[in-house]
Amino acid sequence: MATISNPKRQRIAMLIVAVGGALLVARVFALAGDDAEIAGPVQAKPARSSPAREAAVVAAGAASSVRLDRLQAHEARQQAVPASRPAASQPVLFDTVSWQPPPPKLVAAAPPKPVTPPFPYAYMGGLSEDGVRTSFFTKGERVLPVKAGDTIDAVYRVDEMTDKQMTLTYLPLNETLVVALGGGS
Predict the structure, then answer these.
(1) CA 151, 153, 158: angle at the middle one, nearest 5?
(2) Is 185 in contact with 134 (CB distance < 8 Å)?
(3) How far apart are CA 131 and CA 54, in angstroms?
(4) Domain tally for the chain?
(5) pLDDT digits (tens, 9 = 90+) for 21-67
(6) Residue 156 structural domain
(7) Which of 138, 136, 129, 116 is nearest to 181 (CA)?
Protein backbone atom coordinates (compact mmCIF):
# COMPACT_ATOMS: atom_id res chain seq x y z
CA MET A 1 0.00 0.00 0.00
CA ALA A 2 1.35 3.43 -0.88
CA THR A 3 2.09 5.85 1.93
CA ILE A 4 1.22 9.52 1.79
CA SER A 5 4.23 11.63 2.66
CA ASN A 6 2.74 15.11 2.36
CA PRO A 7 1.07 16.17 5.65
CA LYS A 8 -1.50 18.21 3.76
CA ARG A 9 -2.49 15.16 1.72
CA GLN A 10 -2.64 13.08 4.89
CA ARG A 11 -5.14 15.51 6.42
CA ILE A 12 -7.25 15.50 3.24
CA ALA A 13 -7.24 11.69 3.21
CA MET A 14 -8.27 11.52 6.88
CA LEU A 15 -11.01 14.08 6.22
CA ILE A 16 -12.35 12.00 3.33
CA VAL A 17 -12.33 8.85 5.47
CA ALA A 18 -14.07 10.68 8.35
CA VAL A 19 -16.77 12.18 6.08
CA GLY A 20 -17.33 8.80 4.40
CA GLY A 21 -17.64 7.10 7.78
CA ALA A 22 -20.09 9.73 9.00
CA LEU A 23 -22.22 9.33 5.85
CA LEU A 24 -22.18 5.56 6.27
CA VAL A 25 -23.29 5.79 9.91
CA ALA A 26 -26.03 8.27 8.99
CA ARG A 27 -27.27 5.92 6.26
CA VAL A 28 -27.35 2.95 8.64
CA PHE A 29 -29.39 4.94 11.18
CA ALA A 30 -31.73 6.16 8.44
CA LEU A 31 -32.36 2.62 7.27
CA ALA A 32 -32.81 1.38 10.83
CA GLY A 33 -35.23 4.25 11.49
CA ASP A 34 -37.78 2.62 9.18
CA ASP A 35 -38.33 -0.27 11.59
CA ALA A 36 -37.55 1.14 15.03
CA GLU A 37 -37.34 4.54 16.63
CA ILE A 38 -33.95 6.11 17.34
CA ALA A 39 -33.46 6.81 21.02
CA GLY A 40 -33.86 10.46 21.96
CA PRO A 41 -31.76 12.39 24.44
CA VAL A 42 -31.63 10.93 27.94
CA GLN A 43 -33.15 13.13 30.58
CA ALA A 44 -31.70 13.05 34.04
CA LYS A 45 -34.17 12.19 36.80
CA PRO A 46 -34.45 14.63 39.63
CA ALA A 47 -33.30 13.31 42.98
CA ARG A 48 -36.79 13.54 44.39
CA SER A 49 -39.76 12.50 42.38
CA SER A 50 -43.36 12.14 43.17
CA PRO A 51 -45.36 9.00 42.32
CA ALA A 52 -47.34 11.00 39.73
CA ARG A 53 -44.12 12.13 38.09
CA GLU A 54 -42.82 8.55 37.98
CA ALA A 55 -46.09 7.36 36.39
CA ALA A 56 -45.77 10.06 33.71
CA VAL A 57 -42.17 9.04 32.97
CA VAL A 58 -43.18 5.36 32.70
CA ALA A 59 -46.08 6.28 30.38
CA ALA A 60 -43.76 8.40 28.18
CA GLY A 61 -41.24 5.55 28.07
CA ALA A 62 -43.95 3.09 27.03
CA ALA A 63 -45.10 5.42 24.25
CA SER A 64 -41.60 5.74 22.81
CA SER A 65 -40.70 2.03 23.04
CA VAL A 66 -41.15 -0.47 20.24
CA ARG A 67 -44.69 -1.82 20.18
CA LEU A 68 -44.25 -5.59 19.92
CA ASP A 69 -47.98 -6.19 19.65
CA ARG A 70 -48.13 -4.07 16.46
CA LEU A 71 -45.08 -5.88 15.06
CA GLN A 72 -46.64 -9.28 15.73
CA ALA A 73 -49.93 -8.20 14.14
CA HIS A 74 -48.04 -6.97 11.06
CA GLU A 75 -46.19 -10.30 10.73
CA ALA A 76 -49.48 -12.20 11.04
CA ARG A 77 -50.98 -10.13 8.20
CA GLN A 78 -47.91 -10.78 6.02
CA GLN A 79 -48.19 -14.53 6.55
CA ALA A 80 -51.90 -14.47 5.69
CA VAL A 81 -51.21 -12.90 2.27
CA PRO A 82 -50.06 -15.47 -0.34
CA ALA A 83 -46.53 -14.85 -1.59
CA SER A 84 -47.64 -15.05 -5.22
CA ARG A 85 -49.63 -11.84 -5.07
CA PRO A 86 -49.21 -8.71 -2.94
CA ALA A 87 -51.92 -7.43 -0.62
CA ALA A 88 -54.43 -5.08 -2.24
CA SER A 89 -53.38 -2.25 0.07
CA GLN A 90 -49.69 -2.63 -0.82
CA PRO A 91 -48.49 -1.21 -4.14
CA VAL A 92 -46.32 -3.34 -6.38
CA LEU A 93 -43.12 -1.34 -6.64
CA PHE A 94 -41.11 -3.26 -9.21
CA ASP A 95 -43.80 -4.76 -11.38
CA THR A 96 -43.09 -4.52 -15.10
CA VAL A 97 -45.24 -2.12 -17.07
CA SER A 98 -45.47 -2.25 -20.82
CA TRP A 99 -46.46 0.86 -22.72
CA GLN A 100 -46.93 -1.09 -25.95
CA PRO A 101 -50.48 -1.91 -27.00
CA PRO A 102 -51.35 -5.57 -26.62
CA PRO A 103 -50.63 -7.65 -29.69
CA PRO A 104 -53.63 -8.20 -31.96
CA LYS A 105 -55.43 -11.46 -31.54
CA LEU A 106 -54.43 -13.85 -34.26
CA VAL A 107 -57.31 -14.99 -36.37
CA ALA A 108 -56.80 -18.13 -38.35
CA ALA A 109 -56.23 -16.88 -41.86
CA ALA A 110 -58.29 -18.45 -44.58
CA PRO A 111 -56.21 -20.62 -46.85
CA PRO A 112 -55.10 -18.73 -49.94
CA LYS A 113 -57.35 -18.99 -52.94
CA PRO A 114 -56.01 -21.51 -55.43
CA VAL A 115 -54.39 -19.93 -58.47
CA THR A 116 -54.69 -21.13 -62.01
CA PRO A 117 -51.30 -22.55 -63.04
CA PRO A 118 -49.67 -21.34 -66.24
CA PHE A 119 -50.44 -23.29 -69.39
CA PRO A 120 -47.83 -26.12 -69.35
CA TYR A 121 -47.63 -26.66 -73.13
CA ALA A 122 -45.36 -24.92 -75.63
CA TYR A 123 -46.87 -23.60 -78.89
CA MET A 124 -45.35 -25.14 -82.06
CA GLY A 125 -47.55 -23.73 -84.76
CA GLY A 126 -50.95 -23.98 -86.32
CA LEU A 127 -52.97 -24.25 -89.52
CA SER A 128 -56.45 -23.39 -90.72
CA GLU A 129 -58.49 -25.79 -92.92
CA ASP A 130 -62.03 -24.99 -94.02
CA GLY A 131 -62.26 -22.21 -91.40
CA VAL A 132 -61.25 -24.50 -88.54
CA ARG A 133 -58.08 -23.53 -86.68
CA THR A 134 -55.82 -26.31 -85.37
CA SER A 135 -52.86 -25.46 -83.14
CA PHE A 136 -50.04 -27.78 -82.19
CA PHE A 137 -48.53 -27.86 -78.70
CA THR A 138 -45.73 -29.88 -77.17
CA LYS A 139 -45.02 -31.12 -73.69
CA GLY A 140 -41.79 -33.07 -73.47
CA GLU A 141 -41.80 -35.37 -76.52
CA ARG A 142 -45.59 -35.39 -76.79
CA VAL A 143 -47.28 -33.34 -79.59
CA LEU A 144 -50.95 -32.33 -79.21
CA PRO A 145 -53.17 -31.06 -82.03
CA VAL A 146 -55.84 -28.83 -80.45
CA LYS A 147 -59.10 -27.35 -81.88
CA ALA A 148 -61.87 -25.27 -80.30
CA GLY A 149 -64.09 -27.48 -78.08
CA ASP A 150 -61.31 -30.01 -77.28
CA THR A 151 -60.38 -30.96 -73.71
CA ILE A 152 -56.66 -31.28 -72.94
CA ASP A 153 -55.72 -33.94 -70.34
CA ALA A 154 -59.15 -33.49 -68.63
CA VAL A 155 -57.81 -30.23 -67.15
CA TYR A 156 -58.15 -27.58 -69.88
CA ARG A 157 -61.12 -27.00 -72.18
CA VAL A 158 -60.50 -24.95 -75.35
CA ASP A 159 -63.33 -22.43 -75.64
CA GLU A 160 -62.18 -20.29 -78.57
CA MET A 161 -59.22 -20.19 -80.91
CA THR A 162 -58.03 -17.47 -83.30
CA ASP A 163 -54.79 -16.94 -85.18
CA LYS A 164 -53.36 -14.81 -82.34
CA GLN A 165 -54.79 -16.30 -79.11
CA MET A 166 -56.58 -19.22 -77.55
CA THR A 167 -59.14 -18.96 -74.70
CA LEU A 168 -59.15 -21.90 -72.27
CA THR A 169 -61.06 -22.84 -69.13
CA TYR A 170 -59.06 -24.40 -66.30
CA LEU A 171 -61.64 -26.99 -65.21
CA PRO A 172 -60.63 -27.61 -61.54
CA LEU A 173 -61.21 -23.90 -60.71
CA ASN A 174 -63.53 -23.03 -63.61
CA GLU A 175 -61.34 -20.03 -64.46
CA THR A 176 -60.66 -18.58 -67.88
CA LEU A 177 -57.11 -18.46 -69.22
CA VAL A 178 -55.88 -16.74 -72.41
CA VAL A 179 -52.81 -18.10 -74.21
CA ALA A 180 -51.09 -16.03 -76.90
CA LEU A 181 -50.33 -17.84 -80.19
CA GLY A 182 -47.95 -16.94 -82.98
CA GLY A 183 -49.59 -15.03 -85.86
CA GLY A 184 -50.09 -16.31 -89.41
CA SER A 185 -51.89 -19.32 -90.87
Answers:
(1) 25
(2) no
(3) 134
(4) 1
(5) 999 888 888 887 655 454 555 555 555 556 666 666 555 555 555 56
(6) 122-180
(7) 136
